[in-house]
Design brief:
mainly alpha, 20 helices
């Protein structure tokens, strides 16, 4: 009996939630790597079809806008339906749309395939489902976990180096087929074998749940009847909360406009300045690596507070844009390195910070919808971001005014994040 009791009490060496984290990292590298490969497909498509930069950029604007609209739907479906069914379905849709781009010959073909169908796959197979899954698996150390979980999104920018190499070897059309094949043979079986949306689906409990239960017992007398806990929020109350929409606006300004405007045109901007295609792509890939490093610093928001971490992220991004504005030719490549380092660190730190801040307030049954609405904000911002970059260049013949606009958007994003006040957590009551 004693040996049987010891066997039952024995804890697994590795908490299964970490397998969910690593599954998400690899999946997001490949799922979002296709979106971010837009920057290396931009030049061959421009040279073959001679469309305006603004019109080509609409592909990316449509993609992120549609993704933003679909993200909360994916989050809600994951809460109410089987995520293990949704994610393979997302891979199938994304793979079919990616393969279809190999035969695209008209602008509307790209708008339909890249701009509308691909983001459906992204939403069902990516972050809108992984983010709430991580919140389900981890109660403690959410800032750290969200940072690590976002690493796949960061490394997806470095994945573009491989995509650019394949384009140089076989051309851009066959490259789309290669990317579709990778989706079928890597993330699809990984999702089917390893992914579980909730700990109870695996017969487990969330990390930190025991400590949370003990703390809740001690605080019951003081809090009951005064302030609702995070899990007291109804969906209606969440949607009427000013904190939610401030967070959505903050994310829209930071990523939708401030970041995606730059990222959609970064490679072409460097090529215009006189740098080679491979060097320009390598700077983009370096951004992905530093984004990865920034995301791994998500724990800073646990230690220094969400708003202070968000401010640090905004400061780094603004420094990066100043360095980018100073690039006039290919005589000072260090400016591009400064840009890539600071922009990656800033953008990487901001994402887990805002998601952890949202979880501080809204963690619970409807966090999947909250996570999706943040991405909706990003999508709405991206309607203007990539397109504005191309349009401003077509009108002014330079990207400099567009980069100045990004500085303003990131500063406003930081201010909005402070007003949202995630530091107060559930101390702000939902609107009744």
């Amino acid at each position: 009996m004693g040996s049987e009791r010891n066997y039952k009490d024995r804890k697994p060496v590795l908490f299964y939630g970490w397998k969910i984290v690593w599954t998400g990292i690899l999946g997001m590298i490949l799922v979002y790597g296709i979106r971010h490969s837009f920057v290396v497909f931009f030049t061959p498509i421009l040279e073959e079809f001679h469309w305006s930069r603004g019109n080509i950029s609409i592909m990316m604007s449509l993609h992120i806008f549609a993704y933003g609209l679909l993200a909360p739907v994916a989050g809600i479906l994951a809460d109410r339906w089987r995520a293990r069914v949704l994610m393979p379905l997302g891979i199938a849709i994304l793979g079919a749309a990616t393969a279809g781009c190999a035969w695209a010959g008209e602008l509307w073909h790209f708008y339909l395939l890249f701009g509308i169908l691909m983001p459906i796959g992204n939403a069902l197979a990516g972050w809108p489902i992984f983010a709430p899954a991580l919140m389900n698996w981890f109660i403690k150390r959410r800032g750290l976990v969200m940072g690590i979980g976002q690493m796949g999104g960061g490394l997806s920018f470095a994945y573009v180096l491989l995509v650019n190499y394949v384009i140089l070897q076989v051309g851009w059309r066959l490259t789309f087929l290669v990317l579709a094949g990778i989706l079928v043979f890597v993330p699809l079986p990984l999702y089917l074998l390893c992914f579980y949306y909730r700990p109870r689906d695996k017969g487990l409990t969330a990390y930190g749940s025991a400590e949370m239960a003990l703390a809740s017992e001690k605080e019951t007398e003081r809090t009951v009847g005064k302030v609702p806990t995070a899990r007291d929020w109804t969906l209606s109350q969440i949607l009427r909360s000013s904190q939610l929409w401030l967070l959505v606006v903050s994310y829209a300004l930071y990523w939708g406009v401030g970041n995606y405007l730059v990222l959609s045109h970064q490679v072409r901007f460097a090529e215009d300045a006189g740098y080679s295609s491979m060097f320009s792509v390598s700077i983009f890939a370096l951004f992905g690596v530093t984004l990865f490093l920034g995301q791994s610093c998500g724990f800073l928001s646990d230690r220094m507070g969400r708003e202070r971490a968000g401010t640090l992220a905004a400061f780094l991004s603004i420094m990066a844009l100043v360095a980018l504005i100073c690039v006039r030719d290919n005589s000072h490549p260090w400016r591009l390195y400064v840009y890539s380092l600071c922009f990656g660190l800033g953008g990487g730190l901001f994402t887990p910070t805002i998601y952890a801040g949202a979880a501080d307030i809204f963690a619970g049954r409807y966090f999947g919808a909250v996570s999706g609405l943040l991405l909706t904000g990003m999508g709405v911002g991206a309607v203007f971001g990539p397109w504005l970059g191309g349009y401003i260049y077509d009108v002014a013949g330079t990207y400099q005014p567009a980069f100045l606009l990004c500085i303003v958007c990131i500063a406003l994003s930081c201010l909005t994040f402070w007003i949202a006040a995630p530091r107060k957590g559930v101390m702000i009551k939902p609107n009744q």
